[in-house]
Fold these 2 entries.
Entry 1:
Amino acid sequence: MSHDLDPPVAGPGLRELVDRLRVDPDDGFRLADRATEDDFGMTKDEALARLAASRSRIDVLQQRLHAEGERSVLFVIQAMDAAGKDGTIRNVLSGLNPAGIRVESFKAPAGPEAQHDYLWRVHQVCPPRGGITAFNRSHYEDVLVVRVKGFVPEQVWRRRYGHLRQFEQLLTDEGTTVVKVFLHVSADEQARRFQERLDDPEKRWKFRRGDLDDRALWTEFQAAYEDAIRETSTAECPWYVVPADGNSRRNMAVAEILRHTLEQLDPRIPEPEEGLEGIRIV
Ligand code: ADP
């Protein structure tokens, strides 16, 4: 079965697009080699049309996944501040049946979260059978901000790569497909977006002074992302690096990654009871 859109739309085919963005294991991944901007050979309007088409298809596949009720999808989204995590989630998942979709956000652990191992809070909110859960930040914070800010010694965060691979393998073995997306924004574009937030009274609330502390550690964060992605992108639980300097192409590409994941799962609606086709409701 072809996984490409019918009728064809502008830009690369689905498989070509996701192949371009995926990080294959053992390919000597370097974040600096990946673009923060890519128009994928599409105008903005073409990207928006493709996003809409992709969302419609995700809607159909999500309903099938729900009807099948056996497997689930965990869609992890990570990024530097202002790369567009919230906007991507809103644009890609809007219009889907809320009954089958959840979004979980992760802040600095507090209360009982801080009293347990770092995966405790994560495992509880992984998707149920038939569901899709998007993580806005995730268990990867425990090898990113935790590493960069020195919250734990190196030997502690370094051994977590192994935990993360094994945790995701467990989820995979038990029926959850794990897909991870890094929204790759440039330092210049982040500066522009921070300034826009500060200048717009409607958006100013999004800005925290601490955002500038993280920005000052840009190089350290990029190194932490590079290592995390290289260490945990596996054939079954891949990372995708999505250019995030342009919103419409970013949203389109993320939607296509989710669609591709669902196309590959190919969820099957259950067989109806026999003999239903003859029934006439009076
Ligand atoms: P967001 O930036 O995601 O929109 P916030 O501004 O509330 O939301 O930021 C959440 C903060 O929580 C981030 O600074 C992130 O680094 C932090 N955080 C998330 N998970 C952890 C963790 N496991 N350990 C420490 N800090 C974390």
Note: Residues 81, 106-109, 136-137, 141-142, 145-146, 208 surround adenosine-5'-diphosphate (CB under 6 Å).
Entry 2:
Amino acid sequence: MSQSDIAMIGLGVMGKSLALNLLDHDFAVSGYDIQATHRAHTQEEAIALGKGLYVNAGNLDQLLASLKSPRILVLSVPAGAPVDSAIDSLIEAGLEARDIVIDTGNSLWTDSEARERKYYGKLRFFSTAVSGGEAGARHGPALMASGDLSAWSSIRPMWEAIAAKVDSNGLPLPSFEDGEPCAAYLGPAGAGHYVKMVHNGIEYADMQLICEAYQMMSDVLGMSPNEVGEVFEQWNHGELNSYLMEISADILKTTDPETGQPFVSIVLDKAGQKGTGLWTAVNSLQEGSPAPTIAQAVFARAQSAQKSLRIKASTLIDMPTDCGMNPNNTYEKEAVLAALKDALYCAKISVYAQGFALMKEKSDKENWQLDMAQIAKTWRAGCIIRAAILHQITLAFDAEPTIAHLLFAKPFIRVLSEKSLGWRKTVAQAAMSGVPAPGISASLHYVDTLRTATLPANLLQAQRDYFGAHTYARVDCDESRRFHFSWHDVPREEVEF
Ligand code: 6PG
């Protein structure tokens, strides 16, 4: 009998967790995976849960036959070719034009757009980017939906039920408590995955900022991982509250059971990446909407991976540094920590502002009409970058939905004015101590560049004209008029094009 509300294809960690989450909310779910072990595990856990109704499909025909019409099928398969091959198999198995297929992987947004075109008329293609890892998928993820709007009304009740929730103050609620769901329809195909891509770019940058603060505390102040963890825990109770800060404190306070050493000291300092931060950085370059901290975070991971080169360089390149402080002096230590705390908060604001500016640029270009307040709301719980600051960002966009730049919002102008001195001191301290802080510095340079009315690009433009006759605009007439200066002639003169 066709009874299931929804089907999950791909029962790995994320697919299984989403399926169990749906069951927990009393939906009838069918599951299928090419691997029999994944099917068996999910069935066992579904039986143990004892909620909803679970159908363990042995093949795609059984899966399709088990669903109510229109059929809603969720793909939880690796991004890229596996998504297309899963959809093609479903079409072969008898998918119909009104059926809905939802891609939940970390797909490249242009792939989602191409899929909507490719499958138009064959099925209703929809995408939902999921954030929150395994625990989020199981107990409340952030869901960024986009695609065929006619499909949203069928999907919405399920997504809103399983998503993370916030209370009226924007604070995350425990699983199963009623509140505002962190699930939203963001726009046409591609928009949801684009927003998730920027989410991941911000994730890379925020992780990098926290790591730089840890290194400053270790290398400049000589603090142990446990001490740094204690400070992070304290900071997590205030404006710096975030999931990433919380887990960093926990990690730093953890001891390796095997060696008795701080856990972080047994982890090799080579970072991996699956590519979504890189996509954000590349896209920011392509759009001409700078996200330098995100780019620096990607570079920092790449440079961390060059471990043997760094070891060699550390023995060869000796550059004088001047820490200029005595870490044993409690007063100085407290002053450095206070400055670092302000630096971290300002840098975080800068990162979010870069990400939102990039989304605005893209949205305007593609006419997606992304609702920035809605995006901020969707990120307040469930996702990896959930943080107290997202409530402030939501309020800023709610107050002024068409604001040209997040940093123009009065509360952020005030924070930057009050805390930027600590930020500058931290960047200077890092440079003088020879401790790399590319993210904290890039964030500051972004804001300083933004607030500089006249940049040296006048000289740069003249240089371009000098060697390549690339022309320039003048400050004293309309910008559309182009001029070239005959640098290599005698006498030199200006010609208008
Ligand atoms: C999330 C995460 C998740 C994952 C990314 C980043 O929102 O749940 O962003 O999607 O952690 O794939 O992974 P990398 O650090 O390996 O690029």
Note: DSSP finds 19 helices and twelve strands in the chain.
